[in-house]
Amino acid sequence: RKMRIATLAVATLNQWAMDFEGNLKRTKESIRVAKKKGAHYRLGPELEIPGYSCEDHFLEQDTFQHCWECLADILADNELHGILIDLGMPVLHNTVRYNARIFVLDGQVVLVRPKMVLADDGNYRENRFFVGWERSRGLEEYVLPSVVRAVNGQKKCPIGFAALQLNDTVLASEVCEELFVSNSPSIELCLDGVEIIANGSGSHHALRKLNSRIDLIRGISSKCGAVYMYANHRGCDGNRLYFDGCSMIALNDRFLTQSKQFGMTDVEVAVATVNLDEVRSFRTFTTSLNMAAAKSKRIPRVEVDLNIVDETVHHPELTKPIQPFLHDPMEEIARGPACWLWDYLRRCGMRGFFIPLSGGADSSSVTAIVGSMCQMIVKEVENGNEQVLADVRRITRGGEDYVPTDARELCKRILFTCYMGTKNSSVDTRDRAIQLAKEVGCTHYSVNIDKMVAAVEETFADMTGMKPKFSAHGGSFGENIALQNIQARLRMVFSYMQAQLLPWVEGGVGSLLVLSSGNVDEALRGYLTKYDCSSGDLNPIGAISKVDLKAFLHWGATNLGYPSLADVLRAPPTAELVPIESGEVQLDEVEMGMTYEELGIFGRLRKLHRCGPVSMFRSLVEEWKHTMSVEKVGKCPLGRF
Asked: HSE of 251 in the Cβ direction (CA atoms, 13 Å)?
């Protein structure tokens, strides 16, 4: 008997919410590539037809109609026959909205498999848009819309939680969140003889999150024995999330293929040629697994006349195992937000970015991330990515002959920065901003905004007859804070004027996206001025802690080629909003009443451990028991939260 050899494909797509024409084009391209690579089954990401982040558009009938129109186009395309296609889109069944997988073969809809467990925490609100399918309902009949009937004459297909019984193996779905729950369907499916588990997912990037995803996939495939396929989106599809790819195929406890986590390719198809007999061998060898399987519940089967095993190959070349690739967390900061910014820029119609560059850690980090983006773009163009090249030419108005070969030259075209100093600013921060701008290559300006500040102060004095003073000059606490805040707020007002006019100043057209630079710790603490640099169109570091940003500066000084980041890191964080001649040194950590390391603990306890005031106090007492008394913990800002 020959080995049961099958070639399987997972597609990583850069889709865009509600871009039905573009999404369809990329989906069809991925199917063609999968066929060209010899695959008999192609798995795509969750909700790939409309895009994952359609939000309240999922409540509109038009969205469902356009999805079926796209699917009808796929059904009618004879070039896409001869391969089992597994794609994601929403469906209406008995007037109920479901997030579903659609299995298609040779122009026919084989099965509609609704998602059973919806993601409804953190960044996700799927229960607002969909209802989870109750597996106890079994299989029902789904009435296909007229647009499908007009193409293939098919009126109905099964809908529900079921496995596909092919001629030579059994295949079934596990959709995104279902992998992460304690009673994931994959266990039940494996025990009932399903050999290939396919997970079409929409999973966003978070620092170090990929580690957990890999552990879960390895746990399922190694515990039960299975081919586990995982397909994910990659890119920004119009929301604040960045989906980080890494589509994978695992066999038992080994990984066979993995797509890139960060990249600028719209379509990437990874394939693996596997021996399905290894699944059976693994399962039959393990007695306890056999005993559990004998007692397991039966999963409904949908018979599909398809041979996924290629019997024409006499000497197959099986895909060799690999070690899953994990980026260094600092490289994740450099690449994840950079790719998100690029996707947003190339689809929003703007000319580039503007950053109010203060010479401090946060704005320098954002500038370095945009610099990293430009480096990635140049490499993509060097590697022949025609889509990236076309986008660069359109954004920069560089013409058909323009080819970016130097990241600094490209950065000069799309990144504008400005150091907006006052009489309270130091020469050191100004010089750091100038030096970093030179290293990155952006178009940089330096300006003194004292006239703007004085105009606001004088207008207030004309209105009230009162002139506020800094505390160093005898003013009250309220006066002191107001005079600091007006400097910060005017920088943001002036930033938006520059964002609209600097392309014109440089002889171009269009306007810029303003990037803000507030880190997650300061937002949690409330240590910021409303409508200052914490406000903007996009915030690439809004979910990154100060501790991680400081580590990123250290990493970027060498790995990104921006050595002045090391000078930024060495400088104590300061807002520079109080008079220099007063001799007062304004340090962030002093004003907050805690160090950034302590602030990081604050963030972890609040977000990861969900601590309220009492729980946080108790946790800190235990964590700091060797260095701080209970009374001292109670007096510190964290203990009083």
From this structure: 23
Residue from 28, 115, 412, 546 carrying the catalytic annotation: 115
Considering the entire predicted model, what is its pTM?
A: 0.91
546: annotated active-site residue = no
For 95-121, letters b (16+ CB in 10 Å) and e give: eebbbbbbbbbbbbbbbbbbbbbbbee
Which among 377, 359, 334 is positioned nearest to 429, based on CA atoms?
359
Give residue 552's Cα distance to chain centre.
18
Taking the C-alpha atoms of residue 324 and residue 333, their distance in angstroms, rounded to an integer, is 19
What stretches of 508-629 show up as alpha helix (H) in DSSP? 520-525, 546-559, 564-570, 588-592, 596-603, 613-623
What is the DSSP annotation of 291-344? HHHHTSPPPPEEE-----B-TT-SS--PPPPBPPP---HHHHHHHHHHHHHHHH
Nearest to 331 by CA among 569, 559, 570, 516: 559
Measured distance CA(382)–CA(376) in Å, rounded: 10
Rg (CA), the chain: 28
- DSSP state letter for 538: B
**Residue 210, helix vs strand vs coil:** helix
**Among this protein's residues, is 70 annotated catalytic?**
no
Mean pLDDT, the chain, whole residue set = 92
> Is 412 annotated as catalytic?
no
Distance CA 298, CA 11 (A): 30
Low-confidence ranges of the chain (pLDDT < 70): 1, 314, 581-585, 637-641
**Residue 21, number of CB atoms within 10 A of its CB:** 9
Which SS3 state, helix, strand or coil, does residue 186 take? helix
Q: Is 332 a catalytic residue?
A: no
Do the bridges between strand 96-105 and strand 108-114 make them parallel or antiparallel, or are there none, so unpaired? antiparallel
Candidates 35, 46, 54, 550; catalytic one: 46
Q: Give the pLDDT of residue 478.
A: 94
Q: How far apart are CA 334 and CA 340, in angstroms?
A: 11
The residues pairing with 560 across neighbouring beta strands, listed in sequence order, are none
- Give the DSSP H/E element, type plus range, for residue 483: helix 477-505
Q: Rounded to whole angstroms, how far apart are CA atoms 444 and 354? A: 10
- C-alpha to C-alpha distance for 135 and 132, rounded to whole angstroms: 9
Tens digits of residue pLDDT in 172-212: 999 999 998 888 999 999 999 999 999 999 999 988 889 89
Place of tokens 């356009």: 66
Q: How far lies 270's CA from each of 30, 49, 299, 380, in Å?
A: 10, 19, 29, 18
Secondary structure class of 593 (helix, strand, coil): coil
Catalytic, out of 173, 201, 203, 358? 358
Q: Nearest-CA neighbor of 544 among 524, 530, 564, 526?
A: 524
